[in-house]
Amino acid sequence: MTPAQPSSVLLFSGKRKSGKDYVTDLLQKRLSSETCCILRLSAPLKRQYAQDHHLDYEELLGAGQYKESYRSDMIHWGEMKRQEDSGFFCRLAVKNAVQPIWIISDCRRLSDVRWFQEEFPDQCICVRVEASEETRSQRGWSFTSGIDDAESECGLDDGVKFDLIIRNDEDDDVLEKQMQGLLSLVTNRMKLN
Ligand SMILES: Nc1ncnc2c1ncn2[C@@H]1O[C@H](COP(=O)(O)OP(=O)(O)OP(=O)(O)O)[C@@H](O)[C@H]1O
Ligand SMILES: C[C@@](O)(CCOP(=O)(O)O)CC(=O)O
After folding, report:
1. Binding site for ATP: which residues?
2. Is the CB of 105 inside a 6 Å radius of any atom of ligand 2?
3. What is the pLDDT of residues 72-121, one digit of tens each?
4. Ligand 1, CB cutoff 6 Å, lining residues
5. What CATH number does the domain containing 112 carry?
6. Given a cut of 70, is residue 1 above it in pLDDT?
7. Which sites bind ATP (predicted)?
8. How far does the chain reach from its first CA to its final CA, in angstroms?
9. Nearest ligand to the C-alpha of residue 130?
10. Exposure class string for 168-191: b at 16+ Cβ within 10 A, else e
């Protein structure tokens, strides 16, 4: 049983280098860390993987090439754990959460989304971060077979009704306007609770 009961659970997803971490960091800064926490499903996975393979956990959490060089193996290890227990990483990610607003910054599979929708049926908001392939390439992405055509990247291309799509190319004004809309949504919900 999950101890806390959030007012909102924001389920973020998006392709590699679309800006999930960038947008969710921005959102948390606007809401404050007392009100809002970022919960990465990949954090418990990376922590265990780093321990098992004597790697730098902080580097695996970063945005650089170090993480990319282990991505494929981490994906396969994570999928093996999910096959045993689809909610394994979800439960680990939320177990210490106490703030009213939760941002799950890296949903990648329908099983991730379904777990949260079953645990918190009235609080989930599905948000998709999108950026053009040109923008993503400028941020260091390049198509990698076995990753960009696999469940880790494509698992939420279908089967989810997104409540909000955030376009995150390089126009700060466009992003700001979208952030204001999302902030209003979650702060209004918090007032109602
Ligand atoms: N709107 C933006 N303006 C400037 N830089 C951005 C913007 N969005 C993302 N970035 C930068 O692009 C890079 C990739 O962004 P980010 O790490 O948030 O992507 P991601 O979707 O979390 O990727 P991954 O799935 O690989 O973790 C980062 O260096 C980030 O700082
Ligand atoms: C292994 C994996 O968790 C790596 C995610 O790293 P990031 O979200 O790109 O920082 C992706 C997955 O679980 O399929």
Report:
1. 15-21, 139, 178
2. no
3. 999 999 999 999 999 999 999 999 999 999 999 999 999 999 999 999 99
4. 14, 16-22, 63, 139, 168, 170, 175
5. 3.40.50.300
6. no
7. 15-21, 139, 178
8. 21
9. 1
10. beeeeeebeebeeebeebbeebbe
